[in-house]
Amino acid sequence: MHVCSLRLSHFRNYDTLEVEFHPQLNLFLGSNAQGKTNVLEALYCLSTTRSFRGSSDDEIVQFSQEAAAIESVVQREEGQEQVRLELRRDKPKTLLVNGKKQKKLSSLLGRLPAVVFSPDDLFLVKGGPSLRRRYLDTMMFQMDAGYLAHLQQYERALKQRNSLLRQRVPNLESQLAVWDLPLAQHGAAIMKRRLEISAQLSRSAGEALRDLTGGAEKFEVRYEPTLPVEGDEGSLEKKMIEAFTKARREEIARGVTVVGPHRDDLGLWVNGQMLRKFGSQGQQRTGALALKLAQLDILAEGCHTAPLVLFDDVMAELDDKRQAFFLNRLQQGGQAFLTGTAPADFAAAQAKARVFRVEAGKIQMTQEGPKPVPVRA
């Protein structure tokens, strides 16, 4: 599977754009703030329906315009597929596949899985728990539509429950109890799945860090929920309801739900020490990269296709050894898109890539790239 072409309309700094990609390696070079990252953002939107920058649709649509569009042609084993995502100010997105409007945006998930590597990845290690939860959720809902459904229902119930807690309405305890069951049902399903994926992450990220460090460092990923995840989903539901009852006074005093997967975290440990507190910046960077490499492997298995690799201005931060390691990994995987400002950082990649020059919202191909060789779908 690979993206053949991309067409943009009123997206960020692109009035219009039409570009055809190499099926394996694509390199975008140019100064900062010219539009390189915007191309990767558009591809990620086609993968997940949302921006990896956390931007709203209003921020993505060009100023003075009411709508933007992202359109691509994707080559699959069974043939080509046209995907179009339309974004409008203050209105829901619209998804069309082969010209047919889709009832749910979620039907796009898993069709074009993607992993982003960016300078902000360091915050995955040193930032707050919400970043690590988002990392887990983004990976999970690309593989499992059921997980996304549980997450959406959980967030709706949580919003209602927290609203009640803030309002301090009469008969508050009995009204809270109405939301305990749906919160526990969906929360238990989320926590069970997060426990399973965390075990996979620990194995895969451990292997990646071992390769990156020549076996010098041992990486562990530990799931850290607000209550033990034991037994089946039914027993976990009961434990959550009991936890809600036990925490009732605290929740009323604080005006917020204190138990559930919205408070989960991932513990990241290297050689027995907590990476966030005791790791050097170099170790934290390498740990974050190992997590992203693990995400690539897990998505490839879960989605049954090699994910797109979106490598945003990261190469300059890697030493020669790690650059060579990543380029080797990219050649083994699916289609890759790399951005950067300094051509010298991509000396080893340029001969194997289709190269584009990006300037002021315009893209010009400067090198066709080698004849493609077959890659796994």
Protein described:
The structure is a single chain. With 377 residues, this protein is an alpha/beta fold. The protein has a domain of 181 residues: P-loop containing nucleotide triphosphate hydrolases (Rossmann fold, 3-Layer(aba) Sandwich), CATH 3.40.50. 44% of the residues lie in helices and 24% in strands. Strand 5 and strand 6 form a beta hairpin. Helix 4 packs antiparallel against helix 5 and helix 6 crosses helix 7. The longest helix is centred in the middle third of the chain and has 42 residues.
Q: Could you give a short description of this structure?
A:
With 377 residues, the protein is of the alpha/beta class. Helices cover 44% and strands 24% of the residues. The protein has 12 helices and 15 strands.
Q: How are the secondary structure elements laid out?
A:
Blueprint: E1 2-11, E2 14-20, E3 25-29, H1 36-48, H2 57-60, E4 67-76, E5 79-88, E6 91-97, E7 100-101, E8 114-117, H3 122-126, H4 129-143, H5 145-167, H6 172-213, E9 219-224, H7 233-246, H8 248-254, E10 265-270, E11 273-274, H9 275-278, H10 281-303, E12 308-312, H11 320-332, E13 336-340, H12 347-350, E14 354-359, E15 362-367
Parallel strand pairs: 3-13, 3-14, 8-12, 12-13
Antiparallel strand pairs: 1-2, 1-4, 4-5, 5-6, 6-7, 9-10, 10-11, 14-15
Helix pairs in contact: 4-5, 4-10, 5-6, 6-7, 6-10
